[in-house]
Specification:
Blueprint: H1 8-18, H2 39-42, H3 48-51, H4 59-64, H5 67-70, H6 75-78, H7 86-93, E1 107-109, E2 115-120, H8 135-152, H9 156-166, H10 187-193, H11 206-216, H12 220-227, E3 241-242, E4 253-254, H13 273-291, E5 294-296, E6 299-302, E7 305-306, H14 315-320, H15 322-328, H16 336-350, H17 352-369, H18 389-392, H19 394-402, H20 406-415, H21 426-449, H22 455-470, H23 474-482, H24 489-503, H25 513-528
Parallel strand pairs: 3-4
Antiparallel strand pairs: 1-2, 5-6, 6-7
Helix pairs in contact: 7-8, 8-12, 8-13, 9-25, 10-13, 13-16, 16-17, 17-24, 19-20, 19-22, 21-22, 23-24
Length: about 550
Protein backbone atom coordinates (compact mmCIF):
# COMPACT_ATOMS: atom_id res chain seq x y z
CA UNK A 1 0.00 0.00 0.00
CA UNK A 2 1.44 3.34 -0.99
CA UNK A 3 1.81 6.16 1.47
CA UNK A 4 -1.11 8.58 1.43
CA UNK A 5 -0.58 11.38 -1.08
CA UNK A 6 -2.24 14.02 1.10
CA UNK A 7 -0.53 17.36 0.79
CA UNK A 8 0.39 19.51 3.76
CA UNK A 9 -2.71 21.59 3.06
CA UNK A 10 -4.92 18.50 3.26
CA UNK A 11 -3.10 17.47 6.44
CA UNK A 12 -3.77 20.90 7.90
CA UNK A 13 -7.42 20.78 6.89
CA UNK A 14 -7.82 17.35 8.49
CA UNK A 15 -6.39 18.73 11.71
CA UNK A 16 -8.66 21.77 11.72
CA UNK A 17 -11.67 19.54 11.18
CA UNK A 18 -10.83 16.84 13.70
CA UNK A 19 -9.50 19.02 16.49
CA UNK A 20 -13.09 19.27 17.66
CA UNK A 21 -13.39 15.50 17.92
CA UNK A 22 -11.53 15.29 21.21
CA UNK A 23 -8.16 14.03 19.97
CA UNK A 24 -6.12 16.34 22.14
CA UNK A 25 -5.33 16.02 25.81
CA UNK A 26 -7.64 13.05 26.34
CA UNK A 27 -7.09 11.23 29.59
CA UNK A 28 -8.92 8.43 31.38
CA UNK A 29 -8.48 6.59 34.61
CA UNK A 30 -6.40 3.47 34.02
CA UNK A 31 -8.07 1.44 36.76
CA UNK A 32 -9.52 -1.73 35.26
CA UNK A 33 -13.26 -2.28 35.49
CA UNK A 34 -14.37 -5.89 35.38
CA UNK A 35 -17.80 -7.25 34.53
CA UNK A 36 -20.87 -6.11 32.63
CA UNK A 37 -23.31 -5.08 35.38
CA UNK A 38 -23.62 -1.53 34.04
CA UNK A 39 -23.57 -2.48 30.38
CA UNK A 40 -27.26 -1.92 29.73
CA UNK A 41 -27.32 1.58 31.20
CA UNK A 42 -24.03 2.64 29.62
CA UNK A 43 -24.95 1.28 26.20
CA UNK A 44 -28.71 1.73 26.32
CA UNK A 45 -30.39 2.34 22.98
CA UNK A 46 -32.21 5.58 22.29
CA UNK A 47 -35.79 5.85 21.07
CA UNK A 48 -37.15 7.99 18.27
CA UNK A 49 -39.23 9.85 20.84
CA UNK A 50 -36.14 10.70 22.89
CA UNK A 51 -34.22 12.01 19.89
CA UNK A 52 -36.82 14.14 18.15
CA UNK A 53 -36.93 15.10 14.45
CA UNK A 54 -33.43 16.66 14.37
CA UNK A 55 -31.80 13.27 14.95
CA UNK A 56 -34.28 10.87 13.34
CA UNK A 57 -33.21 11.44 9.75
CA UNK A 58 -32.38 7.75 9.13
CA UNK A 59 -35.81 6.35 10.06
CA UNK A 60 -37.06 5.92 6.48
CA UNK A 61 -33.79 4.42 5.27
CA UNK A 62 -33.69 1.93 8.13
CA UNK A 63 -37.18 0.71 7.17
CA UNK A 64 -35.84 -0.07 3.68
CA UNK A 65 -32.90 -2.05 5.04
CA UNK A 66 -32.90 -5.84 5.11
CA UNK A 67 -33.98 -7.17 8.54
CA UNK A 68 -30.90 -9.40 8.33
CA UNK A 69 -28.90 -6.27 9.15
CA UNK A 70 -31.39 -3.91 10.81
CA UNK A 71 -32.93 -6.64 12.96
CA UNK A 72 -31.84 -8.50 16.08
CA UNK A 73 -29.79 -11.68 15.95
CA UNK A 74 -29.60 -14.67 18.23
CA UNK A 75 -26.40 -15.47 20.09
CA UNK A 76 -25.99 -18.52 17.87
CA UNK A 77 -26.02 -16.28 14.78
CA UNK A 78 -23.46 -13.94 16.31
CA UNK A 79 -20.98 -16.59 17.35
CA UNK A 80 -18.37 -16.31 20.10
CA UNK A 81 -15.82 -13.62 20.80
CA UNK A 82 -17.79 -10.66 19.51
CA UNK A 83 -18.43 -7.60 21.65
CA UNK A 84 -22.06 -6.98 22.68
CA UNK A 85 -23.91 -4.46 20.55
CA UNK A 86 -24.16 -2.13 23.54
CA UNK A 87 -20.51 -1.31 22.76
CA UNK A 88 -21.63 0.16 19.44
CA UNK A 89 -24.45 2.08 21.11
CA UNK A 90 -22.08 3.51 23.73
CA UNK A 91 -19.57 4.62 21.10
CA UNK A 92 -22.27 6.25 18.97
CA UNK A 93 -23.58 8.25 21.92
CA UNK A 94 -20.18 9.33 23.23
CA UNK A 95 -18.43 10.42 20.04
CA UNK A 96 -19.65 14.03 20.00
CA UNK A 97 -22.37 15.96 21.92
CA UNK A 98 -25.80 14.66 20.95
CA UNK A 99 -27.89 17.82 21.11
CA UNK A 100 -25.93 20.28 19.00
CA UNK A 101 -24.89 20.44 15.36
CA UNK A 102 -21.41 19.29 14.42
CA UNK A 103 -19.46 19.66 11.21
CA UNK A 104 -18.43 16.04 11.79
CA UNK A 105 -21.92 15.01 10.68
CA UNK A 106 -23.13 15.21 7.08
CA UNK A 107 -26.01 13.84 5.06
CA UNK A 108 -26.32 12.23 1.64
CA UNK A 109 -29.87 13.41 1.05
CA UNK A 110 -31.10 16.94 0.41
CA UNK A 111 -33.97 18.67 2.21
CA UNK A 112 -36.47 16.89 -0.06
CA UNK A 113 -34.97 13.48 0.66
CA UNK A 114 -33.31 13.13 -2.75
CA UNK A 115 -30.06 11.18 -2.82
CA UNK A 116 -26.85 13.16 -3.33
CA UNK A 117 -23.56 12.10 -4.88
CA UNK A 118 -21.49 14.21 -2.49
CA UNK A 119 -22.45 14.77 1.15
CA UNK A 120 -23.78 18.07 2.45
CA UNK A 121 -23.29 19.72 5.84
CA UNK A 122 -26.52 21.66 5.51
CA UNK A 123 -27.45 25.07 4.14
CA UNK A 124 -25.53 26.78 6.94
CA UNK A 125 -22.53 24.42 6.61
CA UNK A 126 -22.80 23.81 10.35
CA UNK A 127 -23.37 20.08 9.96
CA UNK A 128 -26.00 18.05 11.77
CA UNK A 129 -26.68 16.46 15.10
CA UNK A 130 -25.59 12.81 15.29
CA UNK A 131 -28.24 10.27 14.28
CA UNK A 132 -30.45 8.68 16.87
CA UNK A 133 -28.91 5.48 18.28
CA UNK A 134 -32.08 3.42 18.01
CA UNK A 135 -31.77 -0.33 18.24
CA UNK A 136 -32.30 -0.77 14.48
CA UNK A 137 -29.58 1.80 13.66
CA UNK A 138 -27.19 0.20 16.14
CA UNK A 139 -28.05 -3.20 14.66
CA UNK A 140 -27.26 -2.00 11.13
CA UNK A 141 -23.72 -1.06 12.12
CA UNK A 142 -23.15 -3.85 14.61
CA UNK A 143 -24.32 -6.66 12.31
CA UNK A 144 -22.17 -5.25 9.49
CA UNK A 145 -19.10 -5.17 11.73
CA UNK A 146 -19.69 -8.67 13.05
CA UNK A 147 -20.29 -10.21 9.62
CA UNK A 148 -17.34 -8.54 7.91
CA UNK A 149 -15.13 -9.28 10.90
CA UNK A 150 -16.07 -12.95 10.96
CA UNK A 151 -15.99 -13.44 7.21
CA UNK A 152 -12.67 -11.66 6.59
CA UNK A 153 -11.06 -12.79 9.87
CA UNK A 154 -10.72 -9.27 11.28
CA UNK A 155 -10.81 -8.91 15.09
CA UNK A 156 -13.72 -6.51 15.70
CA UNK A 157 -12.55 -5.74 19.23
CA UNK A 158 -9.29 -4.39 17.79
CA UNK A 159 -11.20 -2.19 15.35
CA UNK A 160 -13.60 -0.60 17.85
CA UNK A 161 -11.13 1.84 19.52
CA UNK A 162 -9.93 3.01 16.10
CA UNK A 163 -13.47 3.52 14.80
CA UNK A 164 -14.52 5.19 18.05
CA UNK A 165 -11.69 7.67 17.60
CA UNK A 166 -12.49 8.45 13.98
CA UNK A 167 -16.17 8.03 13.18
CA UNK A 168 -18.01 7.13 16.37
CA UNK A 169 -19.33 4.26 14.20
CA UNK A 170 -21.74 6.63 12.46
CA UNK A 171 -22.75 6.13 8.85
CA UNK A 172 -22.64 9.86 8.10
CA UNK A 173 -19.41 11.00 9.78
CA UNK A 174 -17.42 13.10 7.31
CA UNK A 175 -13.86 13.94 8.26
CA UNK A 176 -11.17 16.18 6.86
CA UNK A 177 -10.32 15.30 3.28
CA UNK A 178 -13.79 13.75 2.91
CA UNK A 179 -12.93 10.66 4.97
CA UNK A 180 -16.25 8.87 4.95
CA UNK A 181 -18.59 6.88 7.14
CA UNK A 182 -18.05 4.15 9.71
CA UNK A 183 -14.57 3.24 8.44
CA UNK A 184 -13.58 6.84 7.60
CA UNK A 185 -12.61 5.69 4.14
CA UNK A 186 -10.06 7.99 2.52
CA UNK A 187 -9.34 8.49 -1.16
CA UNK A 188 -6.27 6.23 -0.86
CA UNK A 189 -8.29 3.52 0.91
CA UNK A 190 -10.99 3.59 -1.76
CA UNK A 191 -8.37 3.58 -4.50
CA UNK A 192 -7.01 0.37 -2.99
CA UNK A 193 -10.48 -1.21 -3.16
CA UNK A 194 -10.83 -0.35 -6.86
CA UNK A 195 -7.22 -1.11 -7.80
CA UNK A 196 -6.29 -4.37 -9.50
CA UNK A 197 -5.66 -6.98 -6.82
CA UNK A 198 -1.96 -7.18 -5.95
CA UNK A 199 -1.28 -4.59 -8.67
CA UNK A 200 -1.20 -7.31 -11.34
CA UNK A 201 -2.57 -5.99 -14.68
CA UNK A 202 -4.57 -9.15 -15.43
CA UNK A 203 -6.28 -9.29 -12.02
CA UNK A 204 -9.77 -7.96 -11.25
CA UNK A 205 -10.19 -5.13 -8.75
CA UNK A 206 -9.54 -5.90 -5.10
CA UNK A 207 -13.29 -5.56 -4.53
CA UNK A 208 -14.18 -8.14 -7.17
CA UNK A 209 -11.39 -10.46 -6.05
CA UNK A 210 -12.51 -10.43 -2.41
CA UNK A 211 -16.18 -10.83 -3.31
CA UNK A 212 -15.25 -13.91 -5.34
CA UNK A 213 -13.31 -15.39 -2.41
CA UNK A 214 -16.10 -14.51 0.04
CA UNK A 215 -18.58 -16.32 -2.21
CA UNK A 216 -16.48 -19.51 -1.94
CA UNK A 217 -16.72 -19.57 1.86
CA UNK A 218 -19.13 -21.75 3.82
CA UNK A 219 -19.33 -19.23 6.66
CA UNK A 220 -22.83 -17.94 7.36
CA UNK A 221 -21.40 -14.43 7.70
CA UNK A 222 -19.93 -14.58 4.20
CA UNK A 223 -23.21 -15.94 2.81
CA UNK A 224 -25.12 -13.05 4.35
CA UNK A 225 -22.74 -10.53 2.79
CA UNK A 226 -23.04 -12.12 -0.67
CA UNK A 227 -26.84 -12.05 -0.39
CA UNK A 228 -26.73 -8.24 0.05
CA UNK A 229 -25.68 -7.33 -3.50
CA UNK A 230 -25.93 -3.58 -2.83
CA UNK A 231 -22.92 -3.95 -0.53
CA UNK A 232 -20.55 -4.67 -3.42
CA UNK A 233 -22.30 -3.83 -6.68
CA UNK A 234 -21.63 -0.35 -8.08
CA UNK A 235 -24.30 1.54 -10.01
CA UNK A 236 -22.47 3.16 -12.90
CA UNK A 237 -24.14 6.23 -14.43
CA UNK A 238 -25.45 5.88 -17.98
CA UNK A 239 -22.81 6.65 -20.58
CA UNK A 240 -19.93 5.88 -18.24
CA UNK A 241 -17.83 2.82 -17.43
CA UNK A 242 -16.32 1.66 -14.15
CA UNK A 243 -12.56 2.08 -14.33
CA UNK A 244 -9.72 0.72 -12.25
CA UNK A 245 -7.87 3.02 -9.87
CA UNK A 246 -4.56 3.89 -11.52
CA UNK A 247 -6.01 3.32 -14.99
CA UNK A 248 -8.81 5.89 -15.01
CA UNK A 249 -7.75 8.22 -17.81
CA UNK A 250 -10.67 8.01 -20.23
CA UNK A 251 -13.22 10.82 -20.21
CA UNK A 252 -16.08 8.37 -19.63
CA UNK A 253 -14.44 6.70 -16.60
CA UNK A 254 -16.56 6.46 -13.47
CA UNK A 255 -14.37 6.83 -10.37
CA UNK A 256 -16.15 5.72 -7.16
CA UNK A 257 -13.15 6.76 -5.08
CA UNK A 258 -13.38 10.45 -5.97
CA UNK A 259 -14.68 12.97 -3.41
CA UNK A 260 -17.50 13.92 -5.76
CA UNK A 261 -18.90 10.38 -5.36
CA UNK A 262 -18.31 9.96 -1.63
CA UNK A 263 -21.96 9.17 -0.84
CA UNK A 264 -21.40 5.73 -2.41
CA UNK A 265 -19.97 4.64 0.95
CA UNK A 266 -22.39 6.67 3.08
CA UNK A 267 -25.93 6.45 1.66
CA UNK A 268 -28.30 4.06 3.40
CA UNK A 269 -29.61 1.40 3.06
CA UNK A 270 -26.59 0.06 1.07
CA UNK A 271 -24.47 1.36 3.93
CA UNK A 272 -23.18 0.73 6.53
CA UNK A 273 -22.49 -2.76 5.15
CA UNK A 274 -20.81 -1.46 1.98
CA UNK A 275 -18.60 0.93 3.94
CA UNK A 276 -17.62 -1.73 6.46
CA UNK A 277 -16.92 -4.27 3.69
CA UNK A 278 -14.66 -1.78 1.88
CA UNK A 279 -12.95 -1.02 5.21
CA UNK A 280 -12.41 -4.75 5.67
CA UNK A 281 -10.89 -5.10 2.19
CA UNK A 282 -8.54 -2.19 2.90
CA UNK A 283 -7.61 -3.80 6.25
CA UNK A 284 -6.81 -7.08 4.50
CA UNK A 285 -4.63 -5.25 1.97
CA UNK A 286 -2.59 -3.67 4.77
CA UNK A 287 -2.48 -6.96 6.67
CA UNK A 288 -1.00 -8.71 3.64
CA UNK A 289 1.70 -6.05 3.28
CA UNK A 290 2.53 -6.15 6.98
CA UNK A 291 2.41 -9.91 7.56
CA UNK A 292 2.22 -11.75 4.23
CA UNK A 293 -1.16 -13.24 5.26
CA UNK A 294 -3.60 -13.66 2.36
CA UNK A 295 -7.31 -14.44 2.24
CA UNK A 296 -8.76 -17.48 0.52
CA UNK A 297 -12.39 -18.63 0.68
CA UNK A 298 -12.84 -17.33 4.22
CA UNK A 299 -9.48 -18.56 5.52
CA UNK A 300 -6.10 -16.97 6.27
CA UNK A 301 -3.22 -18.35 4.23
CA UNK A 302 0.51 -17.74 4.06
CA UNK A 303 2.87 -19.08 1.40
CA UNK A 304 -0.05 -20.90 -0.20
CA UNK A 305 -1.07 -22.87 2.91
CA UNK A 306 -3.30 -22.33 5.93
CA UNK A 307 -1.90 -19.81 8.39
CA UNK A 308 -1.61 -21.08 11.97
CA UNK A 309 -2.00 -18.47 14.71
CA UNK A 310 1.31 -17.87 16.43
CA UNK A 311 3.59 -18.75 13.53
CA UNK A 312 6.04 -16.26 12.07
CA UNK A 313 4.88 -13.53 9.73
CA UNK A 314 6.26 -12.59 6.34
CA UNK A 315 5.76 -9.08 4.95
CA UNK A 316 7.16 -5.99 6.65
CA UNK A 317 7.11 -7.59 10.10
CA UNK A 318 8.90 -10.76 9.05
CA UNK A 319 11.51 -8.89 7.02
CA UNK A 320 12.15 -6.44 9.86
CA UNK A 321 12.69 -9.19 12.44
CA UNK A 322 11.20 -6.72 14.91
CA UNK A 323 10.33 -9.13 17.72
CA UNK A 324 13.82 -10.58 18.10
CA UNK A 325 15.47 -7.16 17.85
CA UNK A 326 13.18 -5.58 20.43
CA UNK A 327 13.77 -8.48 22.81
CA UNK A 328 17.54 -8.06 22.44
CA UNK A 329 17.09 -4.41 23.39
CA UNK A 330 15.28 -5.42 26.58
CA UNK A 331 11.57 -5.49 25.61
CA UNK A 332 11.36 -9.14 26.64
CA UNK A 333 7.62 -9.47 26.02
CA UNK A 334 7.76 -8.13 22.46
CA UNK A 335 4.93 -9.65 20.46
CA UNK A 336 4.40 -9.90 16.70
CA UNK A 337 0.63 -9.60 17.28
CA UNK A 338 1.05 -6.21 18.96
CA UNK A 339 3.51 -5.05 16.29
CA UNK A 340 0.88 -6.02 13.72
CA UNK A 341 -1.66 -3.86 15.57
CA UNK A 342 0.72 -0.89 15.51
CA UNK A 343 1.58 -1.12 11.82
CA UNK A 344 -1.90 -1.92 10.51
CA UNK A 345 -3.69 0.59 12.78
CA UNK A 346 -1.33 3.41 11.85
CA UNK A 347 -1.68 2.36 8.21
CA UNK A 348 -5.30 3.52 8.25
CA UNK A 349 -4.15 7.02 9.20
CA UNK A 350 -0.73 7.54 7.66
CA UNK A 351 -0.20 4.82 5.05
CA UNK A 352 0.85 1.21 5.54
CA UNK A 353 4.60 1.86 5.25
CA UNK A 354 4.67 4.58 7.92
CA UNK A 355 4.53 2.37 11.02
CA UNK A 356 7.14 0.03 9.61
CA UNK A 357 9.47 2.96 8.80
CA UNK A 358 9.12 4.60 12.23
CA UNK A 359 9.58 1.31 14.08
CA UNK A 360 12.60 0.32 11.98
CA UNK A 361 14.30 3.69 12.50
CA UNK A 362 13.63 3.66 16.24
CA UNK A 363 15.10 0.18 16.67
CA UNK A 364 18.05 0.92 14.40
CA UNK A 365 18.97 4.07 16.33
CA UNK A 366 18.65 2.27 19.66
CA UNK A 367 20.82 -0.59 18.40
CA UNK A 368 23.50 1.79 17.12
CA UNK A 369 23.67 3.66 20.43
CA UNK A 370 23.08 0.53 22.56
CA UNK A 371 20.16 2.20 24.31
CA UNK A 372 18.08 -0.45 25.97
CA UNK A 373 14.32 -0.67 26.39
CA UNK A 374 11.78 -1.91 28.88
CA UNK A 375 8.41 -3.38 27.95
CA UNK A 376 6.84 -0.24 29.45
CA UNK A 377 8.64 1.84 26.80
CA UNK A 378 6.43 0.22 24.15
CA UNK A 379 3.11 0.81 25.89
CA UNK A 380 0.76 3.12 23.99
CA UNK A 381 -1.92 2.79 26.65
CA UNK A 382 0.09 4.11 29.56
CA UNK A 383 2.80 6.32 28.03
CA UNK A 384 1.56 9.88 27.71
CA UNK A 385 2.57 11.55 24.46
CA UNK A 386 0.31 14.59 24.78
CA UNK A 387 3.05 16.72 26.33
CA UNK A 388 4.75 16.82 22.90
CA UNK A 389 1.65 18.17 21.13
CA UNK A 390 2.98 21.74 21.31
CA UNK A 391 5.69 20.73 18.81
CA UNK A 392 4.01 17.87 16.93
CA UNK A 393 0.50 19.18 16.30
CA UNK A 394 -0.30 22.39 14.45
CA UNK A 395 -3.63 23.12 16.27
CA UNK A 396 -1.98 22.87 19.70
CA UNK A 397 0.85 25.21 18.71
CA UNK A 398 -1.64 27.65 17.21
CA UNK A 399 -4.07 27.70 20.13
CA UNK A 400 -1.96 29.92 22.36
CA UNK A 401 -1.19 32.28 19.47
CA UNK A 402 -4.59 32.61 17.83
CA UNK A 403 -6.88 32.56 20.86
CA UNK A 404 -7.55 35.83 22.68
CA UNK A 405 -7.79 33.82 25.90
CA UNK A 406 -4.68 34.59 27.95
CA UNK A 407 -5.05 31.22 29.70
CA UNK A 408 -4.42 29.44 26.37
CA UNK A 409 -1.24 31.45 25.89
CA UNK A 410 -0.07 30.66 29.42
CA UNK A 411 -0.79 26.98 28.84
CA UNK A 412 1.26 26.98 25.64
CA UNK A 413 4.18 28.72 27.34
CA UNK A 414 4.13 26.08 30.08
CA UNK A 415 3.90 23.30 27.49
CA UNK A 416 7.13 24.48 25.87
CA UNK A 417 8.94 23.53 29.09
CA UNK A 418 8.89 19.95 27.74
CA UNK A 419 11.89 20.86 25.57
CA UNK A 420 14.08 20.76 28.67
CA UNK A 421 13.60 16.99 28.88
CA UNK A 422 15.85 16.68 25.83
CA UNK A 423 18.27 19.41 26.87
CA UNK A 424 16.83 21.94 24.41
CA UNK A 425 16.51 25.68 24.94
CA UNK A 426 12.98 26.19 26.24
CA UNK A 427 13.65 29.84 27.13
CA UNK A 428 14.44 30.71 23.52
CA UNK A 429 11.31 28.90 22.29
CA UNK A 430 9.14 30.71 24.83
CA UNK A 431 10.65 34.08 23.87
CA UNK A 432 9.89 33.50 20.18
CA UNK A 433 6.35 32.35 20.98
CA UNK A 434 5.71 35.40 23.14
CA UNK A 435 6.98 37.74 20.41
CA UNK A 436 4.78 36.11 17.76
CA UNK A 437 1.50 36.45 19.63
CA UNK A 438 0.85 40.20 19.12
CA UNK A 439 1.35 39.85 15.35
CA UNK A 440 -0.98 36.84 15.17
CA UNK A 441 -3.62 38.54 17.31
CA UNK A 442 -3.55 41.62 15.07
CA UNK A 443 -4.05 39.54 11.90
CA UNK A 444 -6.81 37.42 13.45
CA UNK A 445 -8.65 40.56 14.57
CA UNK A 446 -8.41 42.08 11.11
CA UNK A 447 -9.97 38.97 9.58
CA UNK A 448 -12.76 38.75 12.15
CA UNK A 449 -13.57 42.48 11.85
CA UNK A 450 -13.83 42.34 8.05
CA UNK A 451 -17.58 42.63 7.42
CA UNK A 452 -17.14 41.82 3.72
CA UNK A 453 -16.05 38.26 4.48
CA UNK A 454 -18.52 35.43 5.05
CA UNK A 455 -18.04 33.12 8.02
CA UNK A 456 -16.68 30.47 5.65
CA UNK A 457 -14.21 32.89 4.05
CA UNK A 458 -13.06 34.07 7.47
CA UNK A 459 -12.32 30.51 8.48
CA UNK A 460 -10.37 29.92 5.27
CA UNK A 461 -8.25 32.98 5.98
CA UNK A 462 -7.68 31.86 9.58
CA UNK A 463 -6.57 28.46 8.30
CA UNK A 464 -4.12 30.15 5.93
CA UNK A 465 -2.82 32.14 8.87
CA UNK A 466 -2.28 28.97 10.87
CA UNK A 467 -0.11 27.52 8.13
CA UNK A 468 1.78 30.80 7.77
CA UNK A 469 2.82 30.87 11.42
CA UNK A 470 3.33 27.12 11.69
CA UNK A 471 6.79 27.55 10.16
CA UNK A 472 7.98 28.73 13.59
CA UNK A 473 7.07 25.33 15.03
CA UNK A 474 9.19 23.43 12.51
CA UNK A 475 12.66 24.21 13.98
CA UNK A 476 11.42 23.05 17.39
CA UNK A 477 10.11 19.82 15.88
CA UNK A 478 13.37 19.26 14.00
CA UNK A 479 15.40 19.68 17.20
CA UNK A 480 13.12 17.33 19.14
CA UNK A 481 13.18 14.73 16.36
CA UNK A 482 16.99 14.71 16.38
CA UNK A 483 16.93 13.47 19.98
CA UNK A 484 13.66 11.53 20.00
CA UNK A 485 15.29 8.08 20.05
CA UNK A 486 16.02 8.82 23.72
CA UNK A 487 12.27 8.66 24.39
CA UNK A 488 9.73 5.81 24.48
CA UNK A 489 8.38 4.28 21.28
CA UNK A 490 4.95 6.01 21.55
CA UNK A 491 6.68 9.38 21.95
CA UNK A 492 9.11 8.64 19.12
CA UNK A 493 6.32 7.57 16.76
CA UNK A 494 4.36 10.74 17.42
CA UNK A 495 7.40 12.94 16.83
CA UNK A 496 8.65 10.98 13.79
CA UNK A 497 5.17 11.10 12.23
CA UNK A 498 5.01 14.88 12.75
CA UNK A 499 8.50 15.34 11.32
CA UNK A 500 7.66 13.30 8.22
CA UNK A 501 4.69 15.59 7.52
CA UNK A 502 6.83 18.73 7.39
CA UNK A 503 9.57 17.09 5.32
CA UNK A 504 7.65 14.82 2.93
CA UNK A 505 4.76 16.21 0.86
CA UNK A 506 3.31 12.70 0.44
CA UNK A 507 2.96 12.18 4.21
CA UNK A 508 -0.32 12.73 6.03
CA UNK A 509 -2.33 11.76 9.07
CA UNK A 510 -2.42 12.88 12.68
CA UNK A 511 0.77 12.63 14.79
CA UNK A 512 -0.03 10.77 17.97
CA UNK A 513 -2.69 8.67 16.24
CA UNK A 514 -1.86 5.42 18.04
CA UNK A 515 -1.96 7.24 21.37
CA UNK A 516 -5.41 8.63 20.53
CA UNK A 517 -6.66 5.15 19.65
CA UNK A 518 -5.11 3.66 22.80
CA UNK A 519 -6.92 6.31 24.86
CA UNK A 520 -10.23 5.17 23.36
CA UNK A 521 -9.32 1.58 24.27
CA UNK A 522 -8.77 2.65 27.87
CA UNK A 523 -12.02 4.56 27.95
CA UNK A 524 -13.96 1.55 26.69
CA UNK A 525 -12.25 -0.63 29.31
CA UNK A 526 -13.14 1.82 32.05
CA UNK A 527 -16.73 2.47 31.03
CA UNK A 528 -17.84 -0.90 29.66
CA UNK A 529 -15.61 -3.36 31.53
CA UNK A 530 -12.32 -5.09 30.83
CA UNK A 531 -12.28 -7.02 27.55
CA UNK A 532 -16.01 -6.47 26.94
CA UNK A 533 -15.57 -4.18 23.93
CA UNK A 534 -11.80 -4.51 23.67
CA UNK A 535 -9.09 -7.02 22.77
CA UNK A 536 -7.18 -8.92 25.46
CA UNK A 537 -3.87 -7.34 24.47
CA UNK A 538 -3.77 -4.04 22.63
CA UNK A 539 -0.87 -1.74 21.73
CA UNK A 540 1.20 -2.88 24.69
CA UNK A 541 3.52 -5.85 25.35
Amino acid sequence: MKQSKASFWVYAFCFFTFAAFGWYGFSVDSKEVVGTAELASKGAFETAEQCGPQRNYFLKDLKKMSPVYAGNRSQAQLGRGNPPKECVSFIMQNFIPLNSKSTAMSQCRDERGQALLSPTKGADAAGFQPPCATESYVNSVYNSLVDVGDCLNIPVKELLPKLYNESGLHVNTLGGGFDAGVGQLTVSALREVFMRYDGIPTNPSALDWYVKEIAKSNKESCKRIIAEKSAYQIDVPKGQKLCFSGEASDADCYTPWSSSNRCIVMTMPANPLKNVLFTGIFYRSMLKNATGISFSAGNDTINGRAFREGEDYNGYIGAGNFVERLRKLGATHASSAVIKQMIVSLGFNAGIRSGKIYLENFIKQREAKQKYLKDEDVDFQNVSTGKWAIVTNLPTYWRGLGSDDAAEFDKAMTSLEVLRELGLDANKAQKTYKELRPYVQKEVKAINDNQKLSAEDKQKKINELKVKYDKYRHPLLQAVFAKSDELTLPEYMRIAHAYSIITDTSAGGAPGYLSFVAAKHKQLEKEMGARVCTADQYLQF
